[in-house]
Write a structure and sequence with these properties.
The complex is a heterodimer. Chain A is an alpha+beta fold. Helix content of chain A is 43%, strand content 17%. Chain A starts with a helix and ends with a helix. Chain B has 2 domains: 13-91, no CATH class; 93-382, no CATH class. Classes of the chains: A alpha+beta, B mainly alpha.
Chain lengths: 208, 397
């Protein structure tokens, strides 16, 4: 009959109305500033720069390759390369960013910078309480504001961070093995050279 | 005993006595004018007050219906939320589009609020508490109510915005369509009472059989008339499920898309005041106005009953808003012309039959049977499954 569905609907909403006063489980929301729901692991909003060790500026993984700057769809990243070099996590000398700015008022949280970074240097943060009274300067973050420790990364995205650490450790081990092999080869070569007639060596040196 | 009776009687008339007492301080020639001004001030203070209360209660009620808490930050339990909203709307920028007709754009919300307030002039809120006891009170109310359409079209047309104009055209089409059943459904009360005066209509319902009142809603034609009146009233005030003119998913905000700041607040106020006045008339016509629901409760002041009934009506409207989805335009028009109009016309006949069948059980059986049969039949016809087939597009394919 006409109006049957309406009665059913009214009964349903009345049940919700009355139920919300008696049952806490029914409530779909929490009282935000006092109560918080822990974010799920894949939560992301804005990028941050990962550093190893204790000092953010020396431990920064970023090598200023500028891939993220070029790939960023809304162009919110600005990088200035350094002229000198510092050792990275395997000990290789690398350029580092003297400036690394992200305008989070422009950033659209697409995570493309994270996808393209070959150095695991930029990751997505979960911090969302970023309101400020200065909408231009207050939302333009420099490298000091952007850098977070690897421990912080482990805390917000544990699974992902463990994978990244394993990959980096593997890379480092490979690099060390290679360096060792190279050193051994060099040593063997040196030994072989020393064992051979010493006359030939000086002849070759100027040519090389 | 008589002291107690006079106490309740004085409490019933407390606002009338107050009005007379204040007016008594003025010269005799001015007294009636001062009395009228005092009554107007009363209306201007009371109904916007209820509006403020309703905005927060509506948000809380809708929240509860959706298993949320609703606003609870400003003041105890969020009851001061309307104050914060008022300050916000006063301090917001008043934007007038560059190509808008500035004069009409400014006038539209003012005209709406004025027209809506005029409707309260003939609304009896208690015993002896009506601003103007007009012989044609009901006619006056409907005439004034129809002029709100003008202000809505003014708003939509002057904004120079496609959404505003579409919203205004929808609003006018809807309000004119539902004005017909609204008027016809209220005519039954006039037919039985024999008067258009709202005060007389309330007095005609003030008797009791045993402890039960003689409200029109407790008769077959009165019940049908009440239900039809409420449906038409919802459509007339653009309340959900008839909120097509301001359907935010289609039209941003309908005819007040281009309004901001206090002009927007005025539209909001006008809309809610229109809802209260039409709910007040539903109460006056069918729910016994300021009469007590049981004869033993007759000692409670009449204005308490009126406002309790009004709050109950508002709560029901909020409940409906939290339940029903918005209609489609064709459903809206079909419902008005294929269901509401035949039912209201039939109800006129039924009310006439009720009048001439005399006292006794026969008229109850006949009137109820006719209305019920018509309802079921029309419902069947309306709800007949329409096999429309796959939709074809003329240009988009």
């Amino acid at each position: 009959m006409l109006g049957e569905g309406m009665i059913k609907g009214l009964a349903e909403t009345a049940k919700n109305f009355a139920g919300s006063f008696v049952s806490k489980e029914r409530m779909t929301t929490v009282e935000y500033p006092e109560e918080r729901i822990a974010p799920i692991e894949n939560t992301r909003d804005f990028p941050f720069l990962v550093y190893d060790g204790n000092d953010p500026m020396t431990g920064l993984r970023c090598v200023a390759c500028q891939i993220c700057e070029k790939e960023c769809p809304p162009k919110c990243i600005y990088i200035v390369k350094s002229t000198d070099k510092k050792p990275d996590f395997v000990g290789k000398m690398q350029i580092y960013p003297t400036r690394f700015d992200i305008d989070i008022s422009v950033c659209m949280s697409c995570q493309i910078c994270v996808e393209v970074c070959p150095f695991e240097a930029i990751k997505m943060d979960t911090e969302f309480e970023l309101s400020t009274t200065d909408r231009f300067g207050g939302l333009l973050y420099d490298r000091e504001q952007l850098s977070r420790s690897n421990e912080h990364y482990h805390k917000i995205h544990p699974t992902e961070a463990a994978e990244v650490d394993a990959r980096l450790a593997e890379e480092k081990a490979k690099a060390e093995a290679k360096a060792k092999a190279a050193a051994e080869a060099a040593a063997a070569k040196a030994a072989a050279a020393a064992a051979a007639t010493p006359k030939q060596a000086p002849k070759k040196e100027p040519g090389a | 005993m008589s002291l107690q009776a006079s106490f309740w009687n004085n409490l019933d008339q407390v606002f009338v006595l107050l009005q007379h007492w204040i007016a008594g301080y003025f010269p005799v020639g001015l007294q009636s004018a001062v009395g009228t001004i005092l009554a107007v001030v009363g209306i201007l203070a009371t109904f916007p007050g209820i509006f403020a209360l309703t905005t927060v209660l509506e948000r809380k009620g809708l929240g509860r219906i959706q298993n949320r808490l609703g606003p609870n930050r400003v003041g105890p339990l969020g009851i001061l939320q309307p104050v914060a909203d008022g300050i916000k709307s006063l301090t917001k920028e008043d934007i007038v589009p560059l190509s808008a007709d500035a004069a009409v754009h400014f006038l539209a919300p003012v005209v709406l609020v004025v027209a809506v307030f005029l409707g309260y002039a003939v609304l009896p809120v208690g015993r002896n508490m009506v601003l103007m006891n007009m012989d044609a009170g009901l006619l006056f109310f409907f005439a004034i109510g129809a002029s709100t359409e003008l202000s809505i079209f003014m708003a939509g047309w002057s904004s120079r915005n496609k959404y505003s104009l579409l919203g205004a055209m929808r609003a006018v089409a809807q309000m004119i369509s539902y004005e017909v059943p609204l008027l016809l459904s209220s005519v039954v009360a006039v037919m039985i009472t024999g008067s258009l005066s709202t005060v007389k209509i309330v007095e005609a319902q003030s008797g009791f059989t045993g402890i039960f009142p003689h409200w029109y809603v407790f008769t077959p034609w009165g019940f049908a008339g009440f239900v039809l009146f409420v449906i038409a009233a919802l459509a007339e005030t653009n309340r959900s499920p008839f909120d097509l003119p301001e359907g935010e998913s289609e039209l941003v905000a309908g005819y007040f898309t281009e309004y901001s700041g206090f002009k927007f607040a005025l539209f909001f106020l006008g809309e809610y005041l229109g809802m209260f006045s039409i709910a007040g008339f539903a109460i006056t016509l069918f729910l016994g106005g300021w009469g007590a629901p049981l004869s033993v409760l007759g000692f409670v002041p009449s204005w308490v009953w009126f406002f309790l009934k009004l709050l109950a009506a508002i709560a029901f409207f909020i409940w409906l808003r939290g339940t029903l989805p918005r209609l489609r335009q064709d459903q809206l028009m079909n419902f008005a012309w294929k269901f509401m109009l035949p039912m209201t016309l039939l109800n006129l006949l039924v009310a006439g039959a009720w009048r001439f069948l005399g006292d006794g059980w026969l008229r109850w059986v006949v009137c109820s049977a006719v209305l019920l049969a018509a309802y079921v039949l029309l419902g069947r016809v309306l709800m007949r499954h329409q096999n429309l087939g796959a939709r074809s597009y003329r240009y988009a394919d």
